[in-house]
Structure formats: C-alpha cells, structure tokens
Design brief:
Blueprint (H helix, E strand, L loop, with lengths): L2 E5 L3 H6 L9 E5 L4 E3 L13 E3 L1 E7 L15 E9 L1 E2 H10 L4 H4 L5 E3 L3 E2 H4 L7 E6 L2 E7 L7 H11 L7 E3 L7 E2 L5 E6 L2 E7 L2
Parallel strand pairs: 1-12, 3-8
Antiparallel strand pairs: 1-2, 4-7, 4-13, 5-6, 5-12, 6-8, 6-9, 10-11, 10-14, 14-15
This protein binds magnesium ion (MG).
Magnesium ion (MG) binds next to strand 1.
Length: 204
C-alpha cells in the first residue's frame, strides 16, 4: 500500500505556518514503512527537536483506478478514520528553505499514525460533514470539520488519480486543520471522529 498526503487543504492551517494556499492540491507520499497502527507507540526520532502532530481525516481506497472522473470518485472509498501526519517541523523548515523535497521531514519510519477505519456513513454528522479532533494528554489541541477543506474528498480522488494509480488499501491523508503543535516524550495522543475514539498513540 501507499500513503498519499495532501498539504495545505485548510486555509487557517496554511496561514498559521505562513504558507500561501496552493492553486492545485499539494501532494506528497509516505512509503508503507511509515505506517504506525492504532495503539503502537511512536519513538521520538533523534534527527528532530521539533516533532509536531497534524491530525487528519483518512480515506481508505476500496477499488483500483486511475484517471477517475468526479462522477465516480465516491465509489473509490467507503471507510474513513483519523491519522496523524507526524512532521519533523525543524527538518521541514530546512527543506523548504533549500527548496528540497520533504520526505526526510515527513515520510520517515512510523510517521503516519493510522486509526481504526469506520464506514463513512457512520462518520458523517447531520450535515454530512466529518467532525474530527485530537487530544494531547486528555486536552483538545486540534479540531476540524471537513466542510472547511479547500479540495473535497471527491476532487482529491480525481486529482490524485491523474498522477498515481489508486490501489485497494491505499490511504489518503486529506490535510490538517489549524492547531498543529509539538509533542514531547511521555505525551499521549488520541484521535476522534465525532465522539468515537479511533486512534491512540503515545510518544516514547
Ligand atoms: Mg499534513
């Protein structure tokens, strides 16, 4: 499986890191070795002093496809979860300064925490949106709602599948809302859709 991530898909988050809003979705990949499943700890990497959480809604691809049109886009995912796009922010800032790719800041071992997937219909609120959040040591640190996404799930599927063939089991990280921040050794992170806890991760 591969992990496809979307950057700057919430305007307020782009602003908090002083980034412009991209004209088209900003994509990057994480390898399958980046996976960290629900319940497993993350060991603080020794190459960063500024490890950040970014909570995101995840889509799991359920059907193979490329060049998918918007009419059929929603057929390609039926389960969602929350994940954490762990980012070595200091390393990323260096990469950005040099105009280098981001992989050493974002695609390292276990940098993609992936929660338990649930059917998308179960995840939606009365308005058809997905409300998601992250707590650190029991206190809310990040909250988002998918109605604030710049590019919708379906439009992401269309755009991503122009470049990358989607295969069953691939996971899309759909972007983080405002409120990213640092973690320390000993922190306990928990990700939610609505009131459902779908991801637990401690930092060791
Ligand atoms: Mg992210």
């Amino acid at each position: 499986m591969k992990i496809i991530c979307v950057g700057r898909n919430y305007a307020a988050h782009a602003a908090e890191l002083n980034n412009p809003i991209p004209q088209t979705p900003l994509l990057f990949l994480k390898p399958d070795t980046a996976q960290l499943l629900d319940g497993y700890p993350l060991f603080y990497p020794d190459f960063t002093k500024d490890l950040h959480y970014e909570v995101e809604v995840l889509l799991k691809i359920c059907k193979n496809g490329k060049h998918i049109t918007s009419e059929f886009a929603s057929d390609y995912y039926n389960e969602v979860s929350v994940g954490i796009d762990f980012t070595a922010r200091d390393v990323q800032d260096e990469c950005k300064k040099k105009g280098h790719p981001w992989e050493i800041a974002k695609a390292w071992n276990h940098s993609a925490a992936i929660g338990r997937f649930i059917p998308i219909e179960e995840a939606k609120d009365e308005t058809g949106n997905i409300d998601f959040s992250l707590t650190k040591n029991g206190a809310f640190v990040q909250q988002g709602i998918t109605s604030e996404m710049i590019t919708s799930f379906d439009d992401l599927i269309v755009y991503i599948s122009k470049y990358f063939m989607l295969l069953r089991g691939d996971v899309i990280f759909t972007g983080t809302p405002k409120g990213v921040g640092p973690v320390q050794i000993g922190d306990q992170l928990e990700g939610f859709i609505g009131k459902q806890s779908l991801l637990n991760c401690s930092i060791k």
